[in-house]
Amino acid sequence: MTDIQERVARHYGQAGIAEAILEALAAAGKDIERLTPADLAPIDEFHTRGRAATVDLAKLLGLGASDRVLDVGSGIGGPSRYLAHTYECTVVGLDLTPEFCAVARVLAERTGLAERVSYRQGNALDMPFEDEAFDVVWSQNAAMNIAERDRLYREMARVLRPGGRLALNDVTAGEGGAPHYPVPWARESSTSFLLTAEMTRKRLEAAGFRVIVWEDTSAPALDFARRRTAAGPTPLGIHLFMGEDWPAMTANTLRNLAEDRIRSLHAVLERV
User: 37-44 vs 78-87: helix axis angle to the nearest 10?
Assistant: First the structure.
């Protein structure tokens, strides 16, 4: 790993994540031996708008059981398990953080989805997969930690078959100035690499993608952030593995969206 990648992995990774999640689920009355993706939704959708964003993006794809999906920046596996459970497709998750991959495997077993989902620790700039190995590449709120966007998008195109689709949720730069830190993807600016939506689109098109859907989702993201703040702390949530500064991260997410320092995007593109 490079120095930046090591710092990104440390930002997300810590010991005892699986134990903390399972303990909280048991306290909430869940059967931790037979979990469902719905049980895990408050915990394992670590991106803007949570499960709602995953549902909305997936509806645009028309996935089927024959599709092979790669989730780049798969975290603890929430979207991959949702896709496999809902659409009966096969999903491979790739994440830089070893602890996240380990937790994802535990939760795949507990949800009975281990035959449809698998997880690899690895670098999105040098993916350990053959050319044209996937029908869909999926990525939610992962690119913000990656400075080499051209290389990332070329790798995504490389592993997609011709005509394959790329589904993205992304945080992009707004016009209100630099973000306030910490935020969920970075505790300070040295590991945060935001592009504007316009530049993101140009880089993707240069890598060999054609835009099918391109939508600014900042308004629903701001509404989600406001509702989350108003609701206050919950027993099940991302705070279980992001530490004591999670309240500051969520407060800054709301402030950054409200001040147009960050924006939210979802898109579907085709590899030409």
Answer: 150
Number of neighbouring beta carbons within 10 Å of residue 211: 13
Crossing angle of helices 98-110 and 17-27, in 10° steps, is 40
The string of DSSP codes covering 11-37 is HH--TTHHHHHHHHHHHTT--TTS--H
Joined together, the tokens standing for residue 107 give: 């939760």
Instruction: List domains and CATH numbers for the chain.
Output: 3-271 (3.40.50.150)
Q: How far apart are the first and last CA of the chain?
A: 31
Give the C-alpha separation, 238 to 161, whole Å: 34
Q: What is the pLDDT of residues 186-242, one digit of tens each?
A: 999 999 999 999 999 999 999 999 999 999 999 999 999 999 889 888 888 898 888
- Strand ranges for the chain from DSSP E: 68-72, 90-95, 117-121, 134-140, 160-173, 209-216, 262-271
Question: Cβ(268)–Cβ(166) under 8 Å?
Answer: yes
pLDDT of residue 163: 97
> Edge-to-edge strands of the sheet including 209-216?
117-121, 90-95, 68-72, 134-140, 160-173, 262-271, 209-216
Please state, in angstroms and rounded to a whole number, the distance separating the CA atoms of residues 116 and 43: 20
In 36-76 the beta strands, taken as DSSP E runs, fall at: 68-72
Which has the closest alpha carbon to 65: 82, 41, 40, 90? 90
Determine contact, residues 98/121, Cβ cutoff 8 Å: yes
Residue stretches of the chain with pLDDT short of 50: none
What tokens were used for 226? 């406001």
Residue 107 CA to residue 90 CA, distance in Å, equals 16
